[in-house]
Amino acid sequence: MKRFRRGLVVGKFCPLHLGHMRTIDAALAACDEVFVISYSKPEFTGCGKAVREGWLKALYPQVRSVVLEDSAELRLPYNDAADSIHREFVGWICLNVLGTEVDAVFTSEAYGDGFARALTTYFGHVVEHVCVDLARAGVPISGTVIRADPHACREFLDPRVYASFVKRIGIIGGESSGKTTLAQALAASLRTVWVPEFGRELWVEKSGELSYADLGHIAEVQVAREERLAQKANRWLACDTTPLTTLCYSEAMFGGAHPVLASLAERSYDVVFLCAPDFPFVQDGTRRDTEFRQRQYEWYRIVLDGKQIAYTTLAGSPEQRVQHALTLLN
Known about the structure:
The chain is of the alpha/beta class. The chain has helices at 18-30, 49-59, 83-98, 112-123, 143-148, 159-162, 179-190, 198-205, 212-230, 243-254, 259-264, 290-306, 318-329, and strands spanning 4-11, 31-38, 64-67, 104-107, 128-131, 167-173, 193-195, 236-240, 271-275, 312-314. It has a five-stranded parallel β-sheet with strand order 3-2-1-4-5, sandwiched between helices. It has a five-stranded parallel β-sheet with strand order 7-8-6-9-10, sandwiched between helices. Helix 3 (83-98) crosses helix 4 (112-123) and helix 9 runs antiparallel to helix 10 (243-254). The longest helix is centred in the C-terminal third of the chain and has 19 residues, at 212-230. The radius of gyration is 25 Å and the shape is elongated.
């Protein structure tokens, strides 16, 4: 039997850091059920509703969490509003959104006692305050400091949270246009990691006999690799191909694309480099020919321009491409 039936943790979680996690973990240890409420007005760049929902779902699937967004139907109090306004708002959310009352509220803040008294009045029964590391001795950090430079503060972030601040470099282009060489070189220069191309691995494994469904699978695995390696990256993640590349092959091979692939091909990247087909074609046994390489290049240009996706074309020698890319990234 745990000390409390229902516990509550409230925060902006912009971003969700180890101090917040310490508080949620304390609630989980002491309560049969834990409810988490997150809201912020205004929002902070890189910490929007969907991102915070993703963090909470990944790290705490066992809690009942709700991330609120300001709207005409639900007006959030401003972050600097009076404590009484926030306390009334949280009580209302508990009853009308979560459909519950709580008997404990967990914070690492001096206002926690007053918060608990307000909820006691609101619910009509005693709500206790459990203070977790008020002095911040265990996790000496704040969201404000992290937002100023999340990369310098990554030791205070779970890798799954830090990954959200890593910028993705999408490298596309026709066959034998230096994508892999560029990805490896950028990763080395930026002291980060790169994402190998799964499609080529599967092509070799299946001796070039890829099915329509295989192309959707390739995109899924490629994205999963990105998500996994972003947790190990340093500021940047160099991606040797994107689902758009797989879409290009699917269109060429089958005249269309699996819905999963079509959806993943809309995935956005912080920087997109298109490698020009301007040096000799190298046949490694997995490629078609120079004509197909040129067709791929033109297809990328049409699609990127049509979707109004910003991109930079890299041409010249591998060394020139790397230098051009690094100049833009820096």
